[in-house]
Amino acid sequence: MTARSAQHDTFTISRHYAATPARVFQAFADPSAKAKWFGSPDPAARKEDVSFDFREGGRETTTTIAPDGTRYGFAATYTDIVPVERLVYTYEMSLNGARISVSVVTVEFRPAAGGTDFSITEQGVYLDGLDNADQRRGGTELLMDALGKSLTD
After folding, report:
1. Between vectors from CA 17 to CA 28 and to CA 113, what angle results, nearest 5°?
2. The CATH fold of domain 6-150
3. Which of 101, 118, 146, 149 has the fewest CB atoms in 10 Å of its CB?
4. Residue 90 forms beta bridges with which residues?
5. What is the pLDDT of residue 153?
6. 73 Cβ partners below 8 Å, 6+ apart?
């Protein structure tokens, strides 16, 4: 039998992007723009089961398959969308079909000199030792770096 556990953690990552809040928001709201930065940093990984319904109550899903066959699932529901200001969504991650975490995320976009002050706060529960807060924070840092790069392309 699997040992059951739940580890809770909250972290915030802040960035300044040299792009308008509207452009940074669009990187989340537009599926083509989001595809440029959201996902595995491994170019050999592939995606399937992709859906994108960006509206309150809408769902976004993706399964990423690593070159070794490992399957990472992402399933989000958008709870609050204030265009160009705030997003709140919940999401769960799975590893080869087993749920490994559930999180609530708040994304904030603030106009600032030269662009946008951006923050993302994640309140997560990491399940059964299959994921942890340090790994999630590291992965989110990589995504925010990729977001920043996509805004300069």
Report:
1. 125
2. Alpha-D-Glucose-1,6-Bisphosphate; Chain A, domain 4 (3.30.530)
3. 149
4. 77, 104
5. 76
6. 49, 61, 62, 63, 92, 93, 94, 95, 97
Q: CB-based contacts of 82: which residues, under 8 Å, 6+ apart?
A: none
Domain ranges of the chain: 6-150
Cβ-defined contacts of 60-65 (< 8 Å, 24+): 60/89, 62/38, 64/39, 64/40
The answer to whether 145 touches 14, Cβ cutoff 8 Å, is no
Amino acid identity at 153: D
pLDDT at position 2 is 65
Question: Is 0.90 surpassed by the pTM of this model?
Answer: yes
Stretches where the chain sits below pLDDT 70 are 1-2
Strand stretches in the chain, DSSP E = 6-17, 46-52, 59-65, 71-82, 86-95, 98-112, 115-127
Residue labelled with tokens 């200001």: 85
